[in-house]
Amino acid sequence: MDVSTPKDRAALIQLLVDWSLCDDSQLGRDPTMQYEPDLGCWRIECPDDDASALDGSDSGDDRMKPYYFSSVICQADRLFGRHTRCFPATDVRPTEGVSEASPLMATAVVKDAWAFSVRDASNDDRDEVKSLKRIRATFESSSHDNIIYPRIVVGGRVKLKRGGRAVEDTTEAMYKGVCKRLLDIVAADSLFRAHRRIVTSPIGQPLRKAKSAKELILVVGDVMRCHSAIVAECKILHRDISDNNILIVRREGEPTRGLLIDFDCALDLSKERIGMRGKMTGTPPFMSINNLDESDVKRTSLDDWESLIYLLCLIGTRGVDKGTRRSSKELEKLPIRLWKSGDAKTILYSKCRCLSNSATFMEEIVSNFNSEDKDGDMLKKLAIYLYKTLFQNHYLGFEYHGTTKTTPNLHCLDVIAENIPTMFDPFSFDNPLESLRDTTLVDPFDMRAEKCDYISRQLLAITDMAWRRAKTILSTDQQ
Question: What span, in angstroms and rounded, lies between the C-alpha atoms of 196 and 216?
Fold first, then answer.
């Protein structure tokens, strides 16, 4: 603002007036989250959408469950985005002050985020709470002893007290009655966000804490087994397989497990007509080519399997073993750097080229895996087998291969022409092969989407095989 001009002076006065009309929550203070100095920890109110008001007053008080935390797992340190924060917490109020000698024993994770939503919570298909509750209901009522999943405890939209009423904390409520100009901007459905809190268990560690390539494979095997079960039985597609959304779960006396989290981008496959095509969703370095291209090819579990390939390649290139990991400066010299530092178009072009055929994939990506990683060959083989099964599946025709559109019978006709030249007169205008040549371009991603179930079963079988091998080796090493 240039306060030397009448226009900006008026704008400054308007801003000061707007601030004077704000309540504490509109100025940035969250009344549902308070520090308790006597206990040395924070108290955070978590909504329970399954609870109902006992007195019918809609005050929302009895729908809020208190949790306590003293540390932060994930901090909202970016200007844009969902401003996700995660806290290891417990619903048991400490009886004495939290300290190093008497630490708070967390039993769950509280996730606090501003996610894209719709105004009517009951019709919000992007609601992570709904997805997690469906997953819990499905797996609790069936025999899935080998599946580890994020079990929701409570969750819902945060509500604040205003004028004696409980009001949902949303971008619209934030500016309503204060700043019409900003309210008009955030009123667009595409910009509407709701403040949600979700409590889940178990608690995990970041994927970078993997102790070896074998342990990483164990984690990935668990995650994709869970992912496949969620797709098949819950009809939910995750759509954001990335390093931040996979956790390592370690429990004393139990084998290491992998946990898939963050269903903010999840898609309800039972409602295919809604949002299935065209929109870029997820974390760019791990996005599928379809996703980056915003193509009209139907989104399927193959997009998530493709994201897993990128995850394995990025980790394999950097290195799993902490002592031998490559630095950012070293990675800048490799082709895979574009997946991390480029914009969407740059990442798209790089992935299309690097995954176009097996030779390029081996030369540009696999050959650059960190050779100093112990058992790194296991990770390399897993990445190769997954790539070949998805992009170069020898059980399917050439039209299912690669990353670019092609004519369906071009390869077959060329082979015939090269190997059986005596079948026809090459100088004849009535070449019988030309009449068979179909010039219609076929999208291999579209073709593979039609065979999604078949290819996904193969990919899961490969991951399970690697998981069993890694588990056997780890068990032998520990004896």
Answer: 31
Instruction: Find residue 88's DSSP bridge partners.
Output: 109
Average pLDDT, rounded, for the chain: 85
Q: What distance in Å separates the CA atoms of residue 172 and residue 83, rounded to the nearest whole number?
A: 17
| pLDDT tens, residue by residue, 192-248 | 889 999 999 999 999 999 999 999 999 999 999 999 999 999 999 999 999 999 999
Structure confidence by residue, pLDDT tens digits, 76-91: 766 667 789 999 999 9
Residue 284 belongs to domain spanning: 204-406+441-479
Here the CATH number for the domain that contains residue 334 is 1.10.510.10
Domain count, the chain: 2
Shared domain for 227 and 132, answered yes or no, is no
Asked if residue 273 and residue 258 are part of one domain, the reply reads yes
- Asked, for residue 89, whether it belongs to a domain, the answer is yes
pLDDT level of residue 17 (50, 70, 90 thresholds):
confident
Closest CA to 47 of 186, 167, 163, 136: 167
Distance CA 356, CA 167 (A): 52
- Closest by Cα among 237, 339, 250 to 287: 339
Q: Let me know if residue 434 belongs to a domain.
A: no
Q: How far is CA 333 from CA 307, 312, 329, in A?
A: 23, 19, 7
- 83 token code pair: 């401003």
Nearest residue to 240 (alpha-carbon basis) of 205, 207, 203, 284: 284
Boundary of a domain, candidates 159, 187, 202: 202
φ, ψ (nearest 5 deg) of residue 248: -100, 125
